[in-house]
Structure formats: C-alpha cells, structure tokens
Amino acid sequence: MFHYSIDQDTEARLMIPEDAEAYFTLIDSNRTHLAPWLPWVESCLSAEDRMDCLEAGLDFPESGWCDVGIWHAGTLAGVVGFHRIEPNIRSATFHYFIGAAYEGRGLITRTCRALVDDVFTRDLFNRLVITVVVENTRSLTVPERLGFHRDGVLRQVYEHHGRLLDMAVYAMLREDWAATAVCPSARADA
C-alpha cells in the first residue's frame, strides 16, 4: 500500500520500521526548520522515538496512523501521512513536512495529490482534513493548490512554546475531489 513514482528521482512509499534511522536523520538535520511548527520534533531524540509510529502504519487504516516517506535520490526528503482517523464519519487528518533542502520543488504537493487520489479512489475515506498553523505560510499553499476548501480558522487552539496559535482548517470530500481539476483520475490525460 502507498507506493508512488513522483518523478524520475522521487518515490513515495509507506514507511516501515527499517526506515526509522532515515526518519530520525531527517528530523535531526532539520530541527531548526521544523521546530516552529511541529512540537514533537523536540522530543524525538533517537530513531527508536519514531519506531512506534512506523509499526502502527503497517496496520493502516485500523491503526489510525501511517507515514509515507518521500524519497528523493535515495534520501528521505519529507513525510506525508494520515492521523486522527474518525471511522464513524470516515474522516482523517492529513499531515506533511519536508526538509529545508527540498522545499520549493513541489514534492509535498505532488505526493499529497497522489495520496489523496489513492484513498478517495479506494473509498477509504469520505473526508480529509488538513490543519495548518496560520503563520506557516508555505504550508498553507499545499491545501490551496490541491483545491481543499478552507473551512475556517480555529483561534488559539495550538499551544507551542508558550504561545497560542491559530490553525487554518481545510477539508476535501471524496465527491468534491473527483470533480476537481487537480484530481489525477478526473483528468483526460491521467
């Protein structure tokens, strides 16, 4: 499950426990870049700290979590995945981050597009949600490029380093995805 060719140098695939060292290396080498937005980065001090998440991902969607690694030229460049699965309404929250050296290449957007299309095509979910700290302007562009609907802003719902931050909430319904121009399976050239 979850294995895509993004371009000739990049693939995205479900992360497994054997990827824990690469995951830790990505986090450790990007702490300053990621820490303003991802509070768990500070507590990730070894490869073992990511092991439980990677093991849980093997039982997706029942586990409620999975991470898909973006591998560029054989190196882990970023991670996209699902968490906060709500089975009763078939909804999941989508998350992503990328190493500083790989920003601006469209890797996150193209990987997210492939994953969204896959889970909606296989009817795994009816609704996907992306929440982004409003101050993280680069990250805000991803759901907008994918055609997600901005449902609103939750004010001061995210505490980080003693600050209360606002979160923008974006959502996409399965029926709406099939009608969008960014849905690969809806395009004539797909």
**Structural class by secondary-structure content:** alpha+beta
The spatial strand order of the largest sheet comes to: 1-2-3-4-5-6-8-7
Q: What portion of the residues fall into strands of 2 or more residues?
A: 35-45%
Question: Which value, in Å, is the CA radius of gyration?
Answer: 16 Å
Tell me the span between the first and last alpha carbons: 20 Å
Helix content: 25-40%
N-to-C series of helices and strands: EEHHHEEEHEHEEH
Given as residue ranges, the uncertain stretches (5+ residues, pLDDT < 50) are none
What does this structure look like?
The protein is an alpha+beta fold and 190 residues long. The chain contains six helices and eight strands, in the order ββαααβββαβαββα. A hairpin with a 2-residue loop joins strand 7 and strand 8. Helix 1 crosses helix 3 (48-57). The radius of gyration is 16 Å and the shape is globular. The mean pLDDT is 85.
